Amino acid sequence: MLYAILCYHDEDTVGSWSKDQEAAVMKKLSVVQDKLAKQGRLGPVARLLPTTSATTLRKDDPPLVLDGPYAETKEQLLGFYVVDCKNLDEALDVARDLGAANPGGAYEIRPVGLLRPGSVPS
Amino acid sequence: MTDTAWIDGALTSARPQAVGALLRYFRNLDTAEEAFQNACLRALKSWPQNGPPRDPAAWLIMVGRNVAIDDIRRGKKQQPLPEDEAISDLDDAEEQLAERLDGSHYRDDILRLLFICCHPDLPATQQIALALRIVSGLTVKQIARAFLVSEAAMEQRITRAKARVADADVPFETPGAVERTERLSAVAAMIYLIFNEGYSASGDTAEIRAPLCEEAIRLARLLLRLFQSEAEIMGLTALLLLQHARAAARFDSDGAVILLDDQDRSKWNKPMIAEGLALIDKAMRHRRSGPYQVQAAIAALHARAEKPEETDWTQIDLLYGALEVMQPSPVVTLNRAVAVSKVRGPQAALDMIEPLAARLSNYFHFFGVRGAFLMQLGRNDEARTAFDRAIALANTSAEAAHIRMHLDRLQRDSQPRGKKAGK
Fold it and tell me: Which domains are assigned to chain A?
């Protein structure tokens, strides 16, 4: 079963990381990801640019274009992983590993109903 | 939990909102700062044990306010901290407070806090130092280091700035639309000053001063998050990102400047460029142009060119033309002339800058650019005179070294053509 792990964190806090802190977190995260990749369980991974770069299209009639993210939340959606796991317990384990590498914020674990791998070269 | 780095991060990011709200309560900067400081001390004790509160800023405001009120009631400040139990039961109160904070209040709190630092009586350097101290929460030591002055000198500068701000009339009522726009543009200008303080550093100090650029970007993003539809704030943020994206390529190992054309573009920071381009894209949709957007659009054209030859100089020329109308200045014209030299040749560019000679007679870049145009036209003696003048006016050793490189080239070129036709 594929699970999406949606990463929520206060982007202010993430944005105030120093370059060294940022590099340290990325390095720890890549250890977790490499392990999953080797097991053939890691799907697409994305890190999103800050919500200030977001635009929202409200599908009203006519559609309305708004600056900023869809929801104003204290913690923002900053990225996601797609991971192949046997069950929720396994997905939670992955989330715990990721969380140990990158503390603070929260992960939402959502089973994936449909995944098209797409064709964009990364 | 041994890793307390997240607490530092949370305190830093909560700071503008918390100090801004405390300032609104107490209407006194010193009291607000002290209240925040006290709240932070308690956070360092309480958070590792109890875990982070749902809304750190609300927690800090609440605790800071309570402690300061206690202090004021007691009429003195030398009291030991109250027992933890007295402040640990904050959940309900936090909920209420957070709801109030979610309104538009905190937006104006942060803007006010930034705006106080832009007081017109304060010289630019004091504005910047004050903002870095109060809003960003950098220590005096950190600020002194970035400004390359002693800690004592910086302490004095900040104290003086604070005294002047304390005497000033700070408007605490919620600003009207016009006033908000005025504040916003003053604050944007101040953020740009912070950025340039770091960006204009020479190669030998660039590393030390880079945090100024990063802090300016953080403040610009903060401002944009509060005012999501302001095209000029998008422009400002984009401009800072696109310029700072080149940081790793701007100096060689000796600290000498590397011009845009000669930079190793693979060293440019891609995510920063992507964010900058996305923002300028968003800003353009609003069709409310402004100087930051135009400058960001120029930076974007450079960022989009994978090789220098791919730069769209025609478009850059047009954008500088627009900027000249918005912000007429000989320096803008001088920059435009560089684009003109690429599009219409060095003679047209030279004709464009000759009328500026009187106003820029003490400006290093004028003579550097003039010398380069003359050199392209093969008027080497005149070029040499211009370069000599530029060296005399250079602000940093890196600037002088760069011009000397041109002089050396002239020297080589005037010798009979030999084995090496060096670049």
Answer: 2-111 (3.30.70.1060)
